[in-house]
Every structure is written in structure tokens, then in C-alpha cells.
Specification:
Distance between the termini: 40 Å
Shape: globular
Number of helices: 0
Radius of gyration: 13 Å
Largest sheet: 7 strands, mixed
Helix content: under 10%
Strand content: over 45%
Length: 126
């Protein structure tokens, strides 16, 4: 069992930055690839970014490439999403997830994730 808790969301203006964190507890954090997803109002949850167990590879949705950066610290059991140049379309609830899958093609699929946090709200104003 893995427990995930997100933090760092808030209200920011267009072009601003936020840093989301996800703290993990329970079974060995380094056994899991980690991902960030988001759910915009009225839409389904969508993939944002993922990082492999060792943090040696990262993956991004096309809509966030060059603006968002995922990283992890296996000693501190945390995964971080640095969000720069934010746009109103980045608004939503952001969730971190943990997956035992190791094939990168699985990382963008919500069904690949066994554990989820409760989410943190990000609102980008005009």
C-alpha cells in the first residue's frame, strides 16, 4: 500500500509559476514510477507527466512540454511538478499517482496507476 499526499496548489496569474509536491509513504517509493494527471472542470482526468523509478527518464503531454518539469527524490519519497509559464487551460485538480508498471507506454494511461492522492487545486487566472 502506498499513500500519496499532494500539496502546493493555489491561484496564480497567467505566466506565473507553481511547484506541486507529492509525498509518499508506505511501501518502497523507489519501486514505483510516478505520474501527474489533472482534471479540468467538466473534463476527464488527463495525463500530464511521468517519471521512471530511478528518475532517469521523464515523459510529458504535448500541451505541457517545455513548461512543466517532473522530478523525484527517492531519499525523501517525494515527486515534484515544477510548473512555469502557466496558462488558464492548466487550471484543474492535479493528482499524483504511483504505478508498478515499467513499460513507458503505460505511463500515460490512468488505468496503469494503482495508487492516487486526493488532488490539489490549481487555478490560473487571466
Amino acid at each position: 500500500q502506498v499513500q500519496l499526499v499532494e500539496s502546493g496548489g493555489g491561484l496564480v496569474q497567467t505566466g506565473g509559476s507553481l511547484r506541486l509536491s507529492c509525498a509518499a509513504s508506505g511501501r518502497s517509493f523507489s519501486n514505483y514510477a510516478m505520474g501527474w494527471f489533472r482534471r479540468a472542470p467538466g473534463k476527464e482526468r488527463e495525463f500530464v507527466a511521468a517519471i521512471t523509478r530511478r528518475g532517469d527518464m521523464t515523459f510529458y503531454a504535448d500541451s505541457v512540454k517545455g513548461r512543466l518539469t517532473i522530478s523525484r527524490d527517492n531519499d525523501k519519497n517525494t515527486v515534484t511538478l515544477q510548473m512555469n509559464s502557466l496558462k488558464p487551460e492548466d487550471t484543474g485538480v492535479y493528482y499524483c499517482g504511483a504505478t508498478g508498471r515499467y513499460v513507458s507506454s503505460a505511463f500515460a494511461r490512468e488505468a496503469s496507476y494503482a495508487y492516487w492522492g486526493q488532488g490539489t487545486q490549481v487555478t490560473v487566472s487571466l
